[in-house]
Design a protein that fits this description.
This protein has ten helices and twelve strands.
């Protein structure tokens, strides 16, 4: 089960994400509403846990946008707003549950379990197994990508890597995060395996003359998204291959 936690209080998100991970959930975290909204729209999450008051965009606005697009992902609000009018406003915006801060951790976990027990509903985009970032589309079910007039065949591992990058546009994904997503603890690939996978994927999705989508954050990991100042050329490919 995948959960998106959006809250700008680091002292809350850090321990809460660790507890949820120990419970067996895969947890992504955002600290502002704009990032949280992008992740919510791109990611195939089973549950969103949203703070109401967030920088850049409120949790209420994220929930309203989600529902306006016909997305039925369960939403749990965590907020200090505790009046009846606040609760009514949150529920009317499309929230499924509401928990007032401060709260007991065991109650939060119980509410998470209750929401995740509900029969799943599928958004149209997820039902056909497609994701899109910039001018790149991924058909995950068929291991195909589309960019311009090109159809790109992907290996299973390339498809998994591209899906993970596309579900987190604009977000720095560390080497460790990507390793944990792509390989089990038992597999333990060598340190240069990820760089090799990135090089192979770049050669397929970044043809000569196309905008760069996979950006290396040296010493840390990768960030995915369109950069119109960077156009892929043969020389750029050579440099990026040697740099990784």
């Amino acid at each position: 089960m995948r959960i998106l936690l959006v809250d700008d209080e680091v002292e809350l998100t850090d321990p809460l994400s660790r507890v949820l991970s120990r419970e067996g959930y895969t947890v992504d975290v955002a600290f502002d509403g704009a990032t949280g909204s992008n992740l919510a729209m791109q990611g195939n999450y089973d549950l969103l846990i949203l703070d109401w008051m967030l920088p850049k965009q409120t949790g209420l606005a994220i929930c309203q946008k989600l529902r306006s697009q016909g997305r039925n992902t369960p939403v749990l609000f965590l907020t200090a707003k505790d009046t009846v009018d606040d609760r009514v406003q949150g529920l009317d915006a499309g929230a499924d549950d509401y928990l007032v801060k401060p709260f007991e951790l065991r109650e939060l976990l119980a509410r998470v379990r209750a929401l995740l027990r509900r029969p799943p509903t599928f958004d149209a985009e997820v039902a056909v197994g497609r994701l899109q970032v910039a001018d790149l589309q991924l058909d995950y079910d068929n291991q195909l990508a589309y960019r311009g007039d090109r159809t790109i065949d992907l290996s299973e591992k390339e498809c998994q890597l591209l899906e993970y990058l596309m579900r987190h546009p604009g977000q720095l994904l560390t080497h460790e995060q990507i390793h944990q997503y792509l390989w089990s603890e038992a597999e333990k690939p060598s340190s240069n395996v990820l760089a090799a996978q990135i090089r192979l994927l770049r050669r397929k999705i970044e043809a000569r003359g196309e905008y760069v989508l996979i950006h290396t954050v040296y010493g840390r990991g990768y960030r995915f998204g369109e950069d119109r100042t960077a156009v892929e050329t043969a020389s750029c490919q050579t440099k990026s291959a040697s740099a990784d």
